[in-house]
Amino acid sequence: IQFSDAFVKYNAQSRSIHLNVNAIFIVILVTSVIMIMVVSPDAVVGAMITGGLDAVTLSLKMLAIYAVWTSVLKIMEKTGINKLLTRAFLPLTRRLFKGENDKAIGYITLNLASNMLGLGGAATPAGIEAIKEMDKGDGRATKNMVMLTVIAATSIQLLPATVISLMASAGSAAPSAIILPSIISTAVSTLVGVILTAVFVK
Fold it and tell me: What are phi and psi of 190, to 5 degrees?
């Protein structure tokens, strides 16, 4: 019964969020159309047709690139590389998340490894389960919960598939050139996030 009530509440919240997001996009769309009608009335129809065509073209290009990266990630899963990475993270996660049980540590390492490999589908549920395991039931986020949220948000990206896809679809001559800058920038952001959390969260 408790699970059912929680599920109903979650669905209601999700519908509310979706309605709010849809309302925001509708406002943006209507505002944009009104502005272009005022500035350049003759360009309204042309802009809408061109924008729709560009959106479809971009979607198809990204779909193809995502298919390639997804295949690479699936190969890594099949060969067990992601599990090796998870085991490699274990000493670090035990040091960062002191006092957590083995189950929570397991979910945390899976979340971090999945984020690094771009496996968002595995990272999100693992992060949710880790938060549940770390929850003390007092309605407050613990330091470890905040730490996981910060690390997940600033996650080091070894394979920034989305950015690579966007660059390729925009005609970049070397879309994979973003990999090294992405690793460096996300490593710095993660390090800063960890330090600030360690210093300011009690």
Answer: -65, -45
Whole-angstrom Cα distance, residue 196 to residue 154? Answer: 12
Q: What is the rounded CA–CA span in Å between residue 122 and residue 74?
A: 12
Distance CA(30)–CA(44), nearest Å, equals: 12
Side chain identity at residue 76, one-letter code: M
Placement of tokens 């129809």 in the chain: 45
State the chain's mean pLDDT as an integer.
Answer: 78
Question: Hey, what's the torsion of the CAs at 178, 75, 78, 129, to 10 degrees?
Answer: 40
Query: What angle in degrees, to the nearest 10, is found between the helix axes of 44-79 and 2-39?
Result: 140
CA distances from 54 to 48, 59, 162 (A): 10, 8, 17
Give pLDDT tens digits for 128-155: 888 888 988 888 889 999 999 999 888 8
Q: Which two tokens stand for residue 133?
A: 């395991």
Nearest to 52 by CA among 29, 21, 31, 34: 29
- What confidence score (pLDDT) does residue 173 get? 84
Q: Please give the distance of CA 192 from its chain centroid, rounded to a whole number.
A: 19
State the pTM of this model.
0.61
Q: What is the pLDDT of residue 4?
A: 46
